[in-house]
């Protein structure tokens, strides 16, 4: 049962404050004056009583400006204009303008009171069992949340990292902590929200993404994309950053800023990833970053290890309308035996060529890429088994899980296939307990460091899983 | 040389040619992909309102005029009020998004993306001694946006600007139907402190020409005040 914790504001001292709709609207958030659906006189009187305060939206720095909402400091993302409001040349931020213009004369409004929190007693209702590896990680996450620490969970693809969070989130809610899960993609928000709501039925859960309806609501458990995080201020005691390596490079500084602003100073910070960047791997190795690994999949079978196969100058062949003989052979075998497969290629233009080369082979073969309007339909058709081979760019490297498939990469030496991308791609194979094996092959025209490191990372994880006794005995 | 595109914020290599170096021609503020997404109005146009005939059905055309302009001409209250209209870009889905970001989101800096095309097209259709009259915003709307988009466009052209008009009502034009728009009489009035120079050519400046109602209303106010030659020039038209 939820019960209100004694909050910092005592209603006796400020009788009309506790009932203020404006302060409830502002709780844990930071808004532009224009975004507040309240009359200016009301806002002003709250300000005069000290119930809310104004922050400068744009601050001058040594080298230029900083936007206090999104943290932007890049010179080319600021501009000035003759402002009809302040009657002066007024500088504004162009990075976060889609959320309304932050300029020198538009303050950000915050509440003077910390957000109230609610305590829940044993809110987790979930009957699933954690694997040994998951359990060890879940304990580490729970401890980090209790002690307000920063931890990284390095879980292989298919380890079941969402369930690993359940005991930690449960503990957080028992302690009256507010929890936020930030993720790079809207589809992850949409997938995660119902799972969490199901696991925590008594707790209000809100999902925030561009165009979502939950925007003005408040809840102790929030799942949000980066941009949506920008409206929060000192709101969370526990921040969980999912797939931390998957945030586009361009939004990384904004994510970092948004995380810093949205959490309380003491909040715990949990990072989840299957493929941490090299610099983080180094920090973990040297003991400079607290991390726990889940080296085994929840089903207890080892990760399939990619094999490398040289395929000559495949680009030239594709230009001439054909594929290297060994690639052809690989595809022919899958189609003859009826085993479904993904074929990853580096770019859209190549994808279209490869699809047209393969169509005469089997007309059901399809290609899918980021700007494809029928992307969802094609993935659905593949799941149903209507498409024997799906040619794809790196967009399907994460998230899409189909049981019993083989995977090949054509041109694994391309720069777009980083170590992380290749590990993710290999992670598509053998996801189901019924079909824990599968073929993962990197066709290349010259081995790269990324390929070697990806394979090494997978082998190392299998070794660690064996040593920790996390694998099923053969 | 590498810059950030004003629209998509990506880095891009500017296309340099001898023309840029020798004539000190301005390099583009947009990347090639974004620039190619702007569609210039060209080809066979309605003599009066500048509507491109190849984008509408043949039935919209009567000789050198489109049927909307024929309607304006047959209406005695509006006949001859506006000499002509010309516009720079086709108001397609892309343009709609760009204008929304510029005007409604308030990304003022985007006005620079229009500069070269605005200037070239203006001087193709209008004389150098024109006087520009930007369509005004209501004071509430001006406060909301922080700038008047029509004035920002006029400032690109480097000609004298006369703030001759003021708006009466504040109801949003874009929410009304054509009929409603024609019905709402008197949208603008002449500012009391303004007198129009005699014999001058006036060009009204606005962002979008949809039905032509806004510029017709504005032109009528100028005509009452003694102006003879009144045209309009907009950034985009549907």
Biggest sheet of chain B, strands in spatial order? 5-10-9-6
What is the tally of beta strands of chain B?
Answer: 10
Low-confidence stretches of chain A: 1-13
Q: Based on the structure given, which CATH architecture of the largest domain in chain A is correct? A: 3-Layer(aba) Sandwich
Would you tell me the structural class of the helices and strands of chain A? alpha/beta
> What is the number of independent domains of chain A?
3
Distance between the termini of chain A: 46 Å
Q: What about the largest sheet of chain B?
A: 4 strands, parallel
Describe the structure.
The complex is a heterodimer of chains A (474) and B (238). Chain A is α/β, with parallel strands linked by helices. Chain A contains 14 helices and 22 strands. In chain A, the strands form six sheets. A seven-stranded parallel β-sheet of chain A has the order 12-13-11-14-15-10-16. A six-stranded parallel β-sheet of chain A has the order 17-22-21-18-20-19, sandwiched between helices. Chain A is globular and about 75 Å long. Mean pLDDT of chain A is 90; it is low at 1-13. Chain B folds into two domains: 1-37, no CATH class; 44-237, Rossmann fold (3-Layer(aba) Sandwich). Chain B has nine helices and ten strands. Chain B has helices at residues 18-22, 32-37, 67-74, 93-104, 115-125, 139-145, 149-154, 178-183, 213-224, and strands spanning 2-4, 11-13, 61-62, 65-66, 85-90, 131-134, 165-167, 188-190, 201-209, 229-237. In chain B, the strands form four sheets. Chain B has a four-stranded parallel β-sheet, with helices on both faces. A two-stranded antiparallel ribbon of chain B has the order 1-2. Chain B has a two-stranded antiparallel ribbon with strand order 3-4. Chain B is globular and about 55 Å long. In chain B, 34% of the residues are buried. The chains are: A alpha/beta (474), B alpha/beta (238). The interface between A and B is medium-sized, with 17 and 16 residues.
